[in-house]
Every structure is written in C-alpha cells, then in structure tokens.
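Hi everyone,

Forwarding the result from last night's run.
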Amino acid sequence: MKNLLLGIMILASGFSFAQQREDLNLRGERKRVAQGVRSGEISRREAAIIHNQANDVRQAKRIAKADGVVTPRERAIIAREDRQLDKTIYRAKHN
C-alpha cells in the first residue's frame, strides 16, 4: 500500500514538473516577443500573429490533455507546432 501511494506521488510530481517546464517555455517565448517589440525587431502585427500561433499551441496541448492521455502522435503534433512557433519568432526577429 505504501509503495502504491509513493508511486502515485512520484507520478503526480512528474506531471507537475512537466507542466512547469511548459509554462517556463511559454514565458520565455513571451519574453522573446516582448523584447523584440521593444527593440523594434518585431512589429505589433508580427507580435499579434505570433500571439495567435502561441494560442494555437496552447489549445493543442489542452485538447491533447482533455482525455487524460497524451498519445505519442499528439505529443509529436504539439512538438511540431512548438518548433514552428520558435521558428516564427526567430524569423520575425531576424528579418
């Protein structure tokens, strides 16, 4: 019984850590965009496009988690969308 309880606690903390990592990633992307707007590298229109794309990534994550199981296919789709968002930010800052 104790082992089962310990296993559940470890598993729950793993999910919490993964969620925190995702939040840090989104915060980092927001900081990159805000810095780009402040420095003039990113226009407000480009920032709006990036913001909409970030919302799409967040929505994909929510949809994947909705049924309680994130399949490898869903994980790959989310990773691809996240990489695309990173590329969009990079291109906007370096155009």
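The longest helix spans residues 2-39.

Cheers,
N.
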